[in-house]
Amino acid sequence: MRRILFLTVAATFALAADPPDLSGVWSPGRAAGAGAPAPPTPILMKGSYKTQYDALNTKIREATGRGEQYAVKGLCSPYGMPTMMQVAVYPMEVIQTPKQVTLIGEAFSEVRRIYIGMKQLSADDVAPGYYGHSVGHWEGDTLVVDTIGIKESVAGYSNLIHSDQMRITERIRRPSPDALHDQITIEDPVTLEKPVTYTLVYRRLNDYEMVEFVCDNNREYIDENNIVRMRLGSK
Known about the structure:
The protein is α+β, with helices and mostly antiparallel strands. Helix content is about 15%, strand content about 30%. The protein is built from 2 helices and 11 strands, in the order H-E-H-E-E-E-E-E-E-E-E-E-E. The chain has a 9-stranded mixed barrel with strand order 1-2-3-4-5-6-7-8-9. The chain has a two-stranded antiparallel sheet with strand order 10-11.
């Protein structure tokens, strides 16, 4: 009898220790009331980087005021991290295995791989790219992800200017069965006075099939002032 009781308790503990399943398709959403995450912290940039950042945002506002789009990235280049984690209303698919969590954004079909239980590489061993190198571990019901190696040309959160020393920490969890939260903290000792933290909120999409999103529009171009234009006729 004691052996049966011990096995039952052990099995219950093992089930409780299993990480939650994040798999599924998730759509950008909002959380209100008691379950709403904290608002974003302010972006405080250092010296000349603040000047560059303010000038960029001024250009964006002026273009928007004229009904134009200011290009902060190439027309068909990926959004990269961390912007790819929420692009407009496009959903994101999560595929989870014990050793890897794969995130696929519908916009531009961008893919991230988070290696579970792996030690993070040194910055010198990561070739700078759009998504960097991500490793994760579980802290209870929360997947904690560390990402380094984002190249400087990748547009940051809220058009944030960053260096190759930017580090992104995510805390991903499911506060309820049909909700997913991704708390993102950005650190950059070169450009930021202090870390920036914000939280993305998603809701589950049941029975949704991701569709292909390929950028092959050759009618648009970026002019000498970084404004997106449309080619007319045969031009």
